[in-house]
């Protein structure tokens, strides 16, 4: 499965720039998160990836969701296909664009946050840092996630809006509670007075967190 993407930057070029891969939510596409790049560290090469599945209303998705069930049912086979495709893309991006493989970061919003979490925890050798914004934990991930020394170089920040009507803040807290014993002090968690959105305050958190880890 080949994934389409758009790139931005780096505004401050270097021989081996750090890489930030952006994964959008349901119904969006690779153009949705790319404008964030202008407000992040200018050393970053930002790559915004289009999810592989067309969403019935508009845009794309990483996997189908059956909204007729309570709770909604996720197509985990499709999620695994997308996870594998993103994991395969990461070293290819390093090769194509000459980025620093030791400074590859993932930022996922909503369903893209679930996907970023799945990629980072199953292939932590490919990822230095993880941003999960307004996301959730896929139900099959706890049984598949790496642990111990495999996660020794992975840092994460999890952000969620307290008034999120799409994925309630409890989903963010579930991610926090799952990651806390795995990452310890390398996990940061923050809640914002917001809905299902990236706000100036949460983006500022992301920008500072990334800047501190780019070095």
Task: Tell me what the structure shows.
The protein is an alpha/beta fold. It is built from four helices and eleven strands, in the order E-E-E-E-E-E-E-H-E-H-E-E-H-E-H. A seven-stranded mixed beta sheet has the order 1-3-2-8-9-10-11, sandwiched between helices. It has a two-stranded antiparallel sheet with strand order 4-5. Helix 1 (76-97) crosses helix 2. The longest helix is centred in the middle third of the chain and has 22 residues, at 76-97. It is globular and about 50 Å long.
Main β-sheet, spatial strand arrangement:
1-3-2-8-9-10-11
Main sheet overview = 7 strands, mixed
SSE ordering: EEEEEEEHEHEEHEH
Q: How much of the residues is beta strand, in percent? A: 15-25%
Tally of strands: 11
Report, as a whole number of angstroms, the end-to-end distance: 33 Å
Helical content band = 25-40%
DSSP helical segment count: 4
Task: Kindly name the structural category.
Answer: alpha/beta
Low-confidence stretches: none
Q: Give the oligomer, counting copies of the same chain as homo and different chains as hetero.
A: single chain
Mean pLDDT: 96
Please tell me what the overall shape is.
globular
Using the CA coordinates, give the radius of gyration: 16 Å
């Amino acid at each position: 499965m080949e994934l389409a993407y758009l790139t931005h930057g780096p505004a401050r070029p270097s021989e081996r720039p750090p890489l930030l891969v952006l994964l959008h939510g349901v119904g969006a596409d690779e153009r949705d998160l790319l404008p964030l790049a202008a407000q992040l560290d200018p050393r970053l090469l930002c790559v915004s990836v289009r999810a592989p599945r067309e969403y019935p209303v508009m845009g794309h998705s990483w996997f189908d969701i059956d909204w007729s069930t309570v709770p909604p049912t996720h197509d985990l086979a499709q999620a695994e296909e997308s996870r594998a495709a993103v994991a395969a893309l990461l070293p290819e991006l390093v090769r194509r664009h000459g980025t620093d493989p030791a400074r590859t970061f993932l930022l996922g919003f909503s369903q893209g946050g679930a996907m970023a979490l799945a990629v980072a925890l199953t292939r932590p050798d490919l990822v230095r840092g993880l941003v999960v914004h307004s996301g959730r934990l896929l139900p099959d991930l706890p049984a598949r996630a790496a642990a111990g020394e495999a996660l020794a170089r992975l840092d994460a920040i999890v952000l969620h809006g307290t008034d999120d009507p799409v994925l309630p803040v409890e989903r963010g807290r579930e991610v926090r509670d799952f990651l806390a014993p795995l990452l310890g002090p390398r996990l940061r968690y923050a809640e914002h007075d917001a809905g299902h959105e990236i706000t100036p305050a949460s983006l500022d958190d992301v920008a500072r967190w990334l800047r501190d880890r780019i070095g």
